[in-house]
Amino acid sequence: MTDADLAAHLAETAGKLLRDVRGSGIFSPKALGLAGDQTANQFLVHALREARPDDGLLSEEMKCDGTRLGMKRVWIVDPVDGTREYGEARADWAVHVALAIDGVASVGAVALPDAGLVLRSDRPAPIPPAPAQLRMVVSRTRPAPEAVTIAGKLGAELVPMGSAGAKAMAVVLGQADIYLHSGGQYEWDSAAPVAVAAAYGLHCSRIDGSPLRYNNADVYMPDLLIARPEHAEMVLKLLHP
Description:
Elements: H1 3-23, H2 29-51, E1 56-59, E2 73-81, H3 83-87, E3 94-101, E4 104-112, E5 117-120, E6 135-139, H4 145-154, E7 157-161, H5 164-172, E8 178-181, E9 185-186, H6 187-199, E10 203-205, E11 220-221, E12 224-227, H7 229-239
């Protein structure tokens, strides 16, 4: 398998496992989130160690031993992006599988299991034209103040949504136009979405316009901007007049 085939296959398979765990009907919402996280993580970690034993690995649900830091190729996975949404049987959750090469999110797949979709970096498609009124995806529970402010200045509609992967893929699919996040994330939240979004021709950066870098010792990432290049330019000018 190519790296892209592997990423897509693992993301899709993990998504099917997660739907099976949820479909068992055994777990309360909170317990379901925990069971799903652990089940998908075990599958992804063991599968990647089997398929790519010489690569590094970073997962939200696995303690990092630091060996990845000296490696050129590092897989970055989020077994369930949007654990809360998954546990509540919502559709806006995702599975992320990405490969960072020399710190760049180069290969990625984002599965949206309840939509039956796997978006992948090696199969980009044209993004539908933006409507007259732009749409900005924001957290459904705690919208970033910067995003709300910028949306007001652009006259954009706010679209509340759950996981980071679901938000980013809404832009990729033409269901939204701007994803501006300033509330803090981690590398696994954005690596796969950024790999896919960049392959589709979208602008991906920090909100100061600087590049996104992965496989850092500190995996915290303060902010993120994903949008069509022309919309990103407008947002960055409003953020930094």
